[in-house]
Design brief:
This protein has 204 residues and is mostly helical. The chain has a domain of 130 residues. The protein has a two-stranded antiparallel sheet with strand order 1-2. Helix 2 runs antiparallel to helix 3. The protein starts with a helix and ends in a 9-residue tail after the last helix.
């Protein structure tokens, strides 16, 4: 499927947890520059195609005309910012056809070169953007793994601490139970001893 500027504009990257990496605004600005250059290239290609079609159909192509010198009259044709001067046809149809064929050939060559250059630039920009995106994703994934590892270690420490606290609670409860049971036994022993003492022994 062919990639278009709108595909770059609407491209959405998946957000990841613990995101750290390149500034998303800088990435968006860079992609905007790609889209601007890409659309400019497409517009220039369309303009060249229109000029080429006009030349092939024999229609006149608007172009600024320079005044020919006195020694050699010449007509000037502009094709995508390239000025080619050809001698003005002084003979009939044969010379005009040859000049037109030369202009068409030159326009086709310039068009092909421009298209090839535009595609190369587009591919380079896309490659750079994809490389940066891959780098951002890789860095975010690495940060995520590091954060998960850190959280796992913290969880292990907390679980160990919880185990210690539970053991402390069990020991404390056991000691408290033993203490209470001892006090109860002491009370029972004291109560029993008091109940068996004769009345005369306590001074009544």
């Amino acid at each position: 499927m062919a990639l278009t500027p709108d595909d770059v504009v609407t491209k959405q990257f998946q957000h990841v947890r613990f995101k750290e990496g390149f500034d998303p605004d800088e990435v968006d600005d860079f992609l905007d520059e790609i889209v601007v250059e890409w659309r400019k290239t497409i517009a220039e290609n369309d303009e060249l195609k229109a000029k080429l079609a006009a030349l092939e159909s024999g229609e006149a192509v608007p172009a600024p005309v320079e005044k020919p010198s006195a020694s050699e009259p010449a007509e000037t044709v502009v094709v995508e910012e390239a000025i080619i001067e050809t001698p003005a046809p002084t003979v009939a149809a044969g010379g005009g056809t040859a000049a037109t064929a030369g202009i068409i050939e030159l326009a086709q060559r310039l068009h092909d070169e421009h298209v090839a250059e535009g595609k190369a630039q587009r591919d380079q920009l896309i490659s750079d953007a994809q490389s940066q995106a891959a780098s951002i994703v890789a860095e975010a994934e690495a940060k995520g793994r590091e954060e998960l590892s850190r959280l796992e270690k913290e969880r292990g420490v907390l679980e160990s601490r919880i185990t210690e606290l539970r053991q402390f609670e069990r020991d404390y409860r056991s000691q408290l139970r033993a203490l209470i049971e001892g006090k109860l036994r002491d009370l029972e022993t004291t109560s029993t001893s008091t109940g068996n003492t004769p009345v005369s022994a306590i001074g009544l």
